[in-house]
Amino acid sequence: MIPNPFGPYEEPRFTAYLMKAWLIGDTPACSSPAYVRDNIHVSLLAKSYVRFAQSLGKPPRFTKHNPSGYVESQGAFTLRMAQEMRSRLNMPCLVELKKQKEFPEPRVRINTDVLDADALGWDESAAWDDLAAYYQRLHGR
Hints:
The chain is α/β, with parallel strands linked by helices.
């Protein structure tokens, strides 16, 4: 399974929606706060895949890699995004967490390989900075 990657040049999905709403002064809503998902910075995912590819033997054998990021409810992830963006955007980054009543998808969908960010040379704070800067440029701020 591929987790929900987010970051600069991401496929515009949930985090793109949050960022756009905040940058125009709106309060976005999370309508599925109870789902537990695996959101991962795309830069960490890329470093993880590079390390995995480099570790394959010659000839490559069957193996798998299930990199994991922030394993938490979508509500908690939404609040994490808001917290990380407040100081970077200098905006309140308010959110509304809706009451989830329907569960047509699996309640939990996550990966299992916990990554060592330091060993991969990844900087979490810089990744959040890059995300904020990307969306500010994208939306002319």
